[in-house]
Amino acid sequence: MWRVDVEIRRDPVSGRRRRVSRRVHGTREDAEVALARLKVADHERRLPNATNARSVQAAFTLYLRTVESGVIELAPKTLVTTRSATRTMAEAVLTDGRRFGDIRLSRLTWQDIEKCYATFRASGRGTEWTRRCATVLNRSLELARKRGLIDSNPCKDAARPRTTRSKPFAPTAVEVHALIDCAAERDPVLGDMALVLASTGMRKGELLGLRWRDVDLEANEVHVAASISDGGPGVGLVRKPTKRSDWRDVPLTNAAAAALARQSDRRRALSGSDPGPSEYVFPGGLDSHIPTRPESLSNRWMSIRGASSVTLLHLRHFAATTMLDAGQSYRTVAEILGNSESTLRLHYDGRTNVGKRLAIAALEIEG
Q: Residues 292, 188: contact at Cβ < 8 Å?
């Protein structure tokens, strides 16, 4: 084991001399490389200035503080997941008895990180959760590298668990129509919301983020540019950009336009005047400027659907599958749904690709 150190700029307040050191396991050449990296980091002003982060736990804390200060932007739900992931990883106990959060950054290796992933597998945590934790760890260590707390990010050498994608479930048209009819009888507003979702492929949060200025019933289209998300305790409901942080205009079917017209009539009857441009189309109560909580909408749907397993997300899958089955291009459907074309192909290729069906039909051998 080698120890290398370099003298850096004096403390700007006290004027005291400061040195930064690293412990290196390996050959003399490895130590010389680490020393060179320290000098480069000092030259690029990436070495620590005010932070005392030295452990993995401290790196997580630094990352969360940077996010909460707004320097790094995360969606409210992503921030909730990130906090949970950092707690899980920090408290993980490796096979050699060490607590992962207590490992010093200077001694953290890719082997330690892979042991942490193995601990998750042994405890029964799913692959998706482990990969989400790996993303948070990578971002935290990358920030630590930029701040000069480590010379390189060992997370990049650690093998993440592989994930297998399964085909998303898409209900049939008969199932969707039956559920919408059932919802319309018991909860007319919910029935119209489900009808709009199934007819446009919008995400649940995007539907709740619609304001009347976004609805053009004369042109039969809606402008989708925002979404409602629940940031959890202390944050509450947040209006944020769409998942891809862009906008799109989505044409309406006659049935969807009629559903929005009925909702406009309901709000007019309730308030005695036409809905204002800034009011939400499907508000959470009497005050039309307060959106519906996404979880409340999900709970209403669960109480309506009964024994059916169709969720509001499945209505989006239904819209995608139906449009692709009709022979529409992936690019067109992706623009309607607000996805990238590659993401759409990743989910639906081989299931609704009409071109593949025509290609196989050409191979038909007549007996």
A: no
Q: Which of 240, 186, 245, 250 is nearest to 208 (CA)?
A: 240
Place of tokens 């459907």: 333
Helices 173-186 and 294-305 cross at an angle (nearest 10°) of: 100
Helix pair angle (56-68, 127-146), 10° resolution: 80
Residue 92: name the closest of 136, 157, 54, 149 by CA: 136
Rounded Cα distance, 239 and 274, in Å: 23
Please, what are the domains in the chain? 1-47 (no CATH), 53-163 (1.10.150.130), 173-305 (1.10.443.10)
pTM above 0.90, yes or no: no
pLDDT of the chain, 367 residues: tens digit per residue: 899 888 877 655 456 677 788 888 889 998 999 889 888 887 877 765 544 568 899 899 989 989 988 888 887 788 888 999 999 999 999 999 999 999 999 889 999 999 999 999 889 888 888 999 999 999 999 998 888 788 889 998 999 888 777 777 889 999 999 999 999 999 999 999 999 999 999 999 999 999 999 999 999 999 999 999 887 776 678 888 887 668 899 999 999 999 999 999 999 999 888 999 999 999 988 889 999 999 999 999 999 998 899 999 999 999 999 998 888 888 999 999 998 888 888 777 655 666 777 787 888 887 6
Contact assessment for residue 297 and residue 289, using Cβ atoms and an 8 Å cutoff: no
For CA atoms 301, 302, 304, 307, the dihedral sign is positive
Q: Which is nearest to 241 in space by CA: 227, 223, 231, 222?
A: 227
| Beta strands at 226-230 and 221-224: parallel, antiparallel or unpaired | unpaired
> Both tokens of residue 132?
């989400």
Maximum pairwise Cα distance, the chain: 92
181 CB-near residues (< 8 Å, 6+ apart): 191
